[in-house]
């Protein structure tokens, strides 16, 4: 077991393309760190640098007390689950799992015991003799996991392991990975572009954008206090509403799209400052018109059953300005064309600087 | 699978096939049937009368020690050529796969020899290793080695195999490069993480995954060595010295067109035809149920 420490890690590809622009993360022993971000944000490059599959341009990667920048992947004591699973197609499931142990000269009896144990944990005992092509996607995924856990490595690396599965299976495997990681207590790094996976799995959540870590925190802190408009828009579904506004001092905010909002249980920035007001769809609720912070003219309704999403724009605003979405309880009855009075739950508004996008 | 095209017109499909069928008939079935017919004929020494002798020509050919020698020579030649050309091509392909800068140039240069006609390839090697004027022959002799492929049958065979293999390397190289590129990079990376060094990765992952390519090339190279090397033999050794490099194809030529023993020559070519059909059948059987990995 070991902690993983990244210090100011950079990756510059030939042609001066900077894929990772200086990232420092500390992952405590036994914790699961999720790197999340849109494609091209450098998250895969970062995990491949931890694995040793990409060279590190500058900075250090340490596993335990040891800096592993110059250590071969084989000697880093890591195991990786690839997006494509990367199962050896000409070997049986058993041999796929035993390969890493054989290469390290583990005695045959121990290999057998460990492969069978891993197969039991993952419930793949019945197809140890099959070839990967005879397995379904979910089964292949399990074998890939099995290949990682038989080795009993210090660190697990997961590179989008669930993105080739269908939605239902993805949900199941997500829970299994979480369980497995907790029982085995192995420090893990997990790359995904799926924010649900990111939120549910992470002990440490790293939101990446254009080669930088926008925020490193626990999932709930990232959700509750997003450090930038990028994080605010990326984590949470539907995305947080962001509205251009100007502070009027004590009175609250004037929305650029028209209308105004009072802030409750929050300090208001100095008057005249351009800001972005962020409110999550689930943090607005219907209110009596007299208490309403804003009025929403409903234009589209999405009925999801448990919830109803109402899209529209702020009443009194210019058309096209101030688009909003609100999450309402499923029992709420609204119609297109309704004017819905809404209040922002106290303390649940987020303010960002209009030019830098950073949280105020 | 795309849906089958159906023709409402009954004649049109045959018309569309006709050109190809005509070519096959004129250039394969007709000559092949002629060879079959000729292989059962025997002519008197003056070519005045022809007798139908059933399979006597075959019996004679198969008992002829010269023919058996030729079979032996061909086997040695084919196996050596296939093994050397495939082995060298595989090494080159693996190395080319690692080249990052200038990989296009590197590959293009390696593919060039394939564009050289067999006879020309033979001449090139003959010029280089001819005992009287070849520069390499001079170097060899300067090192004290008694190089004379005009008198030494084994040396003639080495020269022949070199020329034939050299020409085929490019072709094999192309297929090996394509085969290597078809292996997902993540497999190699997974093996690296699994603690396999480069050599071990090659033998346990890369080589098994190249098996379909290798088998295909084995068949192609055997067929090449059996049948397409006439030009090289003719240019380099002419089957000599003695009959040390007389391959089956070359013997068909020399018996038929030099010695004018038409019946024997035709019988030999029929035997060759049977061999090539057998080899092709093996290949097709294999290609049909070719393993699709992944």
Describe the protein's topology:
The complex is a heterodimer of chains A (360) and B (294).
Chain A: E1 4-13, E2 17-27, E3 32-36, H1 43-51, E4 58-63, E5 66-67, E6 78-81, H2 93-103, H3 108-122, H4 137-150, E7 155-159, H5 167-184, E8 187-192, H6 195-201, E9 204-209, E10 212-217, H7 219-224, H8 229-234, E11 241-247, E12 253-255, E13 260-261, E14 274-279, E15 284-286, E16 294-303, E17 307-314, E18 323-329, E19 339-344, E20 349-353
Helix pairs in contact in A: 2-3, 2-4, 3-4
Chain B: H1 12-38, E1 41-43, E2 50-52, H2 56-63, H3 65-98, H4 103-111, H5 118-129, H6 135-142, H7 153-181, H8 185-193, H9 198-209, H10 211-227, H11 230-236, H12 248-258, H13 262-288
Antiparallel strand pairs in B: 1-2
Helix pairs in contact in B: 1-13, 2-13, 3-7, 3-10, 5-7, 5-11, 7-10, 8-9, 12-13
Task: Write down the overall mean pLDDT of chain B.
Answer: 82
What series of H and E elements makes up the topology of chain A? Answer: EEEHEEEHHHEHEHEEHHEEEEEEEEEE
Number of helices of chain B: 13
As a percent range, the share of strand residues of chain B is under 5%
End-to-end separation of chain A in angstroms reads 39 Å
Shape of chain B: globular
- Measured between the Cα atoms of the first and last residue of chain B, the distance is 19 Å
Q: Calculate the mean pLDDT score of chain A and round it.
A: 87
**Shape assignment of chain A:** elongated
CATH homologous superfamily descriptor of the largest domain in chain A: P-loop containing nucleotide triphosphate hydrolases
Work out the helicity level of chain A: 10-25%
Name of the CATH class of the largest domain in chain A: Alpha Beta
Counting H and I runs of at least 4 residues, what is the number of helices of chain A?
Answer: 8
Number of strands of chain A: 20
pLDDT < 50 stretches of chain B: none
DSSP E strands of chain B, number:
2
Percent helix among the residues of chain B? over 70%
Architecture per CATH nomenclature, i.e. the level-2 architecture of the largest domain in chain A: 3-Layer(aba) Sandwich
CATH fold name of the largest domain in chain A, please? Answer: Rossmann fold
